[in-house]
Input
Amino acid sequence: MNGLYHLGERSAREIDALVARALELRSGAAPRRFDGKALGLLFFNPSLRTQASFQRAAGKLGLDLVQLQGGAGGVWGIECEDGAVMDGANAEHVREAAPVLGRFVDVLCIRAFAGIKSLESDLRDPLLNGFRRFAGVPVVNMESALWHPCQALADWTTLEQYEIPQRAKFVLTWAWHPKPLPQAVPNSTLTMAAQRGMEVVLLRPRGYDLHPTVIENARSLAARSGGSLTITDDRASALAGASAVYAKSWASLDTWGDLEAESRQRAPLRDWCVSAEWMRQTAHARFLHCLPVRRNVVVRDEVLDGPWSVVVDQAENRLHAQTALLETVFTALERTPRVRSQARPSLEIQP
Output
């Protein structure tokens, strides 16, 4: 396994194997150790679960850990555009930064969110794909402008842990939030559930569709796995019979980068907050969220503190899923010589 950009790169069989291993590790199985090997973590954005779980996974696997933080007091600002005249804030180009880090570590993990300023730029996922292009070592995506595959892998693990059938109804619902958020998590959640073969429902208000390429990708994955995808704003029909409800807020593609227009568009949508009333319309569904979550904004206390919520187990599964993933990546490195080039992204989104 040469790193991980998004979960759809891997077959359902490969993911099933990773999930099974994650559940073994959760039950106390000992992971392999790779003493003398090094893992690099580079964070350009805040993190609690991702940072802590990758640090702990590195320890369990016996890896030397090199952890760096972008921004003030951290690494230099990194330029990603080819041909850039670097007379601005960025002091280093990804063409140098990535291969240098690739000489220091055996696997490199990157976290770089969407800026939500330029849709064209965010759809290119420039920072993550720059590192994939130039690092010369496997790169694992810890959340980029477009994808959060490690969260999706933990979510798949959580569905298995709670024995939610592969053909069960899975609802991904938009929720209100005071500011526009990236689409990496909903992109990954939607495609994960489709790839698992579930009856997937995207519940969102008008104007909050995900990118057409993501929808097309989800439909293709669902067709191959025996699942389905429905998109609706009809809350009652979406929730009826659901076995899992996953809430997340995201920005509208129509107003991307325009905070004032986005605020006007979402102003009347504060009732998109998951409540006990929502959950009682389901088939005793489990409630999922990637965390952090704003209580009584995205979801009511009564849900998070009630019998529906599995968000803490879901968060713990980040550790086990990522340990399984890194174990697989480092095992693959033992079988193949180290290379100095990276494949281009397997899924590109066009503006």
About this structure: The chain has a mean pLDDT of 95. DSSP finds 13 helices and eleven strands in the chain.
